């Protein structure tokens, strides 16, 4: 959906392009961080006891899950789970 008039789009793009590449990169990173924080907050609201693995899997599914078929998605989710278990083991000294 795009409800922005073309002249406003053109003006906004011109304003963005006046910024340096570094400024645009910083803006993009800040937008990504904000989106991640919103998704993480939503996941924690749904499950206040969510583990790190649960949050990581939820973030993956929300941002990228639709880009993979079910088999690939399951493989990635298993890898996230395994990486989380490995990290916990390392931190526990096990």
For the sheet with most strands, the description reads: none
Q: Which stretches are low in confidence, meaning pLDDT under 50 for 5 or more residues running?
A: none
Arithmetic mean pLDDT: 94
The first-to-last residue Cα distance is 51 Å
Helicity level: over 70%
Overall outline: elongated
Backbone CA Rg: 19 Å
Order of helices and strands: HHHH
Oligomeric status: single chain
Q: Using DSSP, what is the number of strands?
A: 0
Question: Helices and strands: which structural class?
Answer: mainly alpha
Q: Give the number of helices.
A: 4
Report the β-strand fraction as a percent range: under 5%
Can you walk me through this structure?
- By secondary structure, this protein is an all-alpha fold.
- The chain is built from 4 helices and no strands.
- It has helices at 6-17, 21-46, 52-64, 70-92.
- The longest helix has 26 residues, at 21-46.
- The termini are far apart.
- The mean pLDDT is 94.
